[in-house]
Amino acid sequence: MDDAESYIVSYVSQNYFDEHIELLRSQTNSNIDKSGAKYRVVYNYGFNIKGDYTRIFIEFEMWLDESGNVIGYDGPLKPYNFLISRMEAKRIANDAGMTKVDSQNIIFGLGFRTDKGEINERYVWYLSSEETVKGEPEVIYLDLDTGDVIGILTKIEGVVVND
């Protein structure tokens, strides 16, 4: 487990790790899966969003081969500070063309689709609208610390109405 922790610390610093990340569980696979993973380690990533009093937790995983080398990791690659509040995120989404924000969460955004390709950021604000008219944003992804719009997914056909 020391190798796993050292791997994370190399991205976020020891202080950040101690403040935000805790080991939840680890498991050894009885046989090596097709990815080469022998070990699976699950962590809890805890943080406070600016303006919130409740701490939020997101689980992430790491996979290691038989020798303990990291072969998969979906945790933070930098120390996020969560400087954009929920209200600021909503305002930015409105300014970017989303008339009504129905859902907003912090998610693991790597690989999610946008109008201009895939998201290449690990953790992002995800804001979505349940009722979207053609040409309006269905989903907007924002940088957690700067509020920059990372990506927009625009409704391209008809009207979407979710019940």
Structure summarized in a few sentences:
The protein has 163 residues and is an alpha+beta fold. Helix content is 17%, strand content 39%.
Number of helices: 3
Give the tally of structural domains: 2
Overall geometric form: globular
Low-confidence stretches: 159-163
- Spatial order of the strands in the main sheet? 1-2-3-4
Main sheet: strands, sense, barrel:
4 strands, antiparallel
Order of helices and strands: HHEEEEHEEEEEEEE
Radius of gyration: 18 Å
The proportion of strand residues reads 35-45%
Helical fraction equals 10-25%
The structural class is: alpha+beta
Could you tell me the number of beta strands? 12
Looking at the chains present, what oligomeric state does this protein adopt? single chain
Give the topology.
Blueprint: H1 2-12, H2 14-20, E1 21-28, E2 39-47, E3 56-64, E4 70-73, H3 86-95, E5 103-108, E6 113-114, E7 117-118, E8 123-128, E9 131-133, E10 137-142, E11 149-154, E12 159-161
Antiparallel strand pairs: 1-2, 2-3, 3-4, 5-8, 6-7, 8-10, 9-12, 10-11
Question: Which key phrases capture this entry?
Answer:
163 residues, alpha+beta, Nuclear Transport Factor 2, Chain: A, 2 domains, four-stranded antiparallel β-sheet, 17% helix
Account of the 3D structure:
The structure is a single chain. By secondary structure, the protein is of the alpha+beta class. It has two domains: 2-73, no CATH class; 86-161, Nuclear Transport Factor 2, Chain: A. The chain has helices at 2-12, 14-20, 86-95; strands at 21-28, 39-47, 56-64, 70-73, 103-108, 113-114, 117-118, 123-128, 131-133, 137-142, 149-154, 159-161. The strands form four sheets. The protein has a four-stranded antiparallel sheet with strand order 1-2-3-4. Strands 5-8-10-11 form a four-stranded antiparallel sheet, covered by helices on one side. Strands 6-7 form a two-stranded antiparallel ribbon. Helix 1 packs across helix 2. The longest helix is centred in the first third of the chain and has 11 residues, at 2-12. The protein is globular. The protein starts with a helix and ends with a strand.
